[in-house]
User: Fold Protein TonB from Noviherbaspirillum autotrophicum.
Amino acid sequence: MRLSIVIGMHLTLAAWAWHTQLDAPAEPAPLPMVVRAIALSAPPPQEPPRPIAPQAKPRIPSPKPLPPATARPAAPAQQTAMQTAASTAQQTPANVAAAPQPSAPVMEQASPSPVPMPVTAARFDAAYLQNPAPVYPRLARKSREEGKVLLLVQVSASGEADNVQLKQTCGFPRLDEAAMDAVRKWRFIPARRGAESVAASVVVPIVFRLEG
Assistant:
């Protein structure tokens, strides 16, 4: 049918061109239009779609029926728990004893520390003691030896010189020894702590000086 329509159109165009040539003056003939009939090939028939085979679903094994659960009576357990709680409640007062309350600490009043009694130092310069002066050595006078000796004396509670030591020398051994010999024989007023006589130390100075 398409081929018939194309040929008819070509014939119509050829007739129109012929009449035009008769009416119009002679002109150079145009180039002929070449028309070629092209047979249109019919499209190949489409194959019908193949039916899709249904996929086999995996068979799920049916679960085996569980054996019927045997219900256990809960009453004995509850009774046992109640009996245990009751026995515990009965035993608790017997086992738990009231803790004794801590007694309040007794505040001991600190006794005041005794006030130390003042100590009176020992004395050796009392007139009634009549302590003799050291002897001036003859060789020391001849050599014109002079100086001051300091003696450290440990006086007992009875007033005697228990120990005599040289605290400071005068530079002349003869004078130092003469002073120590004299003080060893002296009597002292012992030191006192309150009304009590106590042993104590006292420093005794001895001066050696030449006259004229």
About this structure: The CA atoms of residues 8 and 171 lie 174 Å apart. The longest helix spans residues 2-23. The mean pLDDT is 72. The chain is about 30% helix and 15% strand.
